[in-house]
């Protein structure tokens, strides 16, 4: 079956790149997003304009006009994030997802495949309960996952919730939300431990990158101390999750890279001294794009050639930032995105592949 996908909440196209990673015979027939900067990036790379409209305004007729058999969804995470208000389905930003859940029941031909990504904690939400109840009601089998890029050999800890679903046609009555059966290990291809961060860093023989991306003093003054996880070296095999606040928020938005003083003290209780002595800098947008497995250059992760005879040609669609995007804008759209390798492998094995174990029905 040729996959014709609708990409909702498309951002900079992480789902689209994941689809290409999977090697499946498929295309994205339309994408939807409200963020003009993300849409600019999407258009720059894919040559098509996402439909800039609130998802809750998309009608069943519009959806049916694309003759799509696959939905790719990455709805806003703010209603569910552990550091937010956790308003869940009462948050206005959940309205788009709730609308799509309702649309499933009135479409003449619901999508055969559904793939969703969101933050950890979504699995405990009422929105999740509404979604999986609707899936069971309409005859889908599904699996739910919590996975991190670390499990796929990438040194970045970006744990996320994923749902993969396929329609079987066997409808059921649902009296209460299905029990959560969360998969937290990857049962398919084995990956070696995470690579060192050095494999993802830009070459900096003259020190220009270290100077340009040095952590500034006003930024440091916002912190009383650094945690062990906040400072990483090129030899580290783990980095913190990069969020949209990276580079302009002082707390918990991503790791800082140490560029010198590897044999000395860390100065975790003295941020100003740590920046000077350790040569702390931000990760560049290119480095974060590599860690998110966007095909920005040859240093970015690539899919195995052991599957899908055309996977090389599928993967040749590269990623780049529009030249007029500022560094802050690049960090923000990356922080709002996802890991293309994790998405692509889930699509390859769990969504489109055969023999998926322990599906829920």
Query: Which range does the strand content fall in?
Result: 5-15%
User: Any idea of the CATH topology of the domain at 3-189 and 338-351?
Assistant: Rossmann fold
Span of the ends, CA to CA: 22 Å
| Protein structure class | alpha/beta
Helix content: 25-40%
Family: Belongs to the class I-like SAM-binding methyltransferase superfamily. C5-methyltransferase family.
Pfam families: DNA_methylase
Keywords: Methyltransferase, S-adenosyl-L-methionine, Transferase
Organism: Spizellomyces punctatus (strain DAOM BR117)
Walkthrough of the structure:
Helix content is 27%, strand content 13%. The chain has 361 residues and is an alpha/beta fold. It has a domain at 3-189 and 338-351: 3-Layer(aba) Sandwich (Rossmann fold), CATH 3.40.50.150. The longest helix has 12 residues, at 95-106. It starts with a strand and ends in a 10-residue tail after the last helix. Residues 307-315 have low confidence and may be disordered.
Brief sketch in words of this structure:
The chain has 361 residues and is of the alpha/beta class. It has helices at residues 14-22, 36-46, 60-65, 95-106, 126-137, 208-212, 217-220, 271-278, 285-291, 311-314, 327-335, 340-351; strands at 3-8, 26-32, 70-73, 113-119, 140-147, 160-167, 182-183, 231-232, 256-257.
């Amino acid at each position: 079956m040729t996959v014709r996908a609708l990409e909702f909440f498309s951002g900079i196209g992480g789902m689209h790149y994941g689809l290409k990673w999977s090697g499946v015979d498929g295309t994205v027939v339309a994408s939807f997003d409200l963020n003009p900067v993300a849409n600019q990036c999407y258009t720059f790379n894919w040559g098509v304009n996402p439909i800039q409209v609130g998802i809750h305004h998309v009608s069943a007729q519009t959806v049916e006009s694309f003759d799509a058999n696959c939905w790719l969804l990455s709805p806003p995470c703010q209603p569910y994030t552990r550091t937010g208000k956790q308003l869940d389905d009462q948050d206005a930003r959940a309205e788009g997802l709730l609308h799509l859940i309702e649309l499933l029941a009135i479409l003449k031909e619901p999508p055969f495949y559904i793939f969703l990504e969101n933050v950890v904690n979504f699995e405990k939400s009422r929105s999740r309960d509404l979604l999986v109840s609707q899936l069971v009601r309409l005859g889908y089998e599904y699996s739910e996952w919590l996975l991190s890029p670390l499990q796929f050999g990438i040194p970045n800890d970006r744990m996320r919730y994923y749902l993969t679903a396929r329609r079987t046609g066997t409808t059921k009555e649902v009296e209460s939300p299905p029990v959560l059966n969360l998969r937290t290990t990857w049962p398919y291809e084995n990956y070696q431990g995470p690579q060192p961060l050095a494999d993802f860093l830009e070459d900096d023989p003259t020190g220009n990158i270290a100077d340009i991306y040095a952590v500034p003093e006003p930024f440091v003054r916002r912190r009383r101390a650094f945690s062990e996880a906040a400072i990483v070296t090129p030899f580290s095999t783990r980095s913190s999750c990069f969020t949209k606040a990276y580079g302009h928020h002082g707390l918990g938005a991503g790791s800082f890279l140490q560029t010198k003083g590897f044999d000395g003290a860390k100065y975790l209780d003295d941020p100003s001294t740590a920046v000077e002595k350790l040569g702390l800098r931000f990760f560049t947008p290119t480095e974060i794009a590599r860690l998110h497995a966007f095909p920005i250059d040859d240093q970015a992760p690539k899919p195995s050639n052991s599957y899908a005879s055309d996977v090389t040609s599928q993967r040749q669609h590269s990623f780049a930032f529009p030249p007029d995007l500022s560094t802050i804008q690049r960090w923000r759209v990356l922080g709002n995105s996802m890991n293309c390798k994790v998405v692509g492998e889930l699509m390859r094995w769990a969504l489109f592949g055969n023999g998926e174990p322990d599906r829920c029905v």
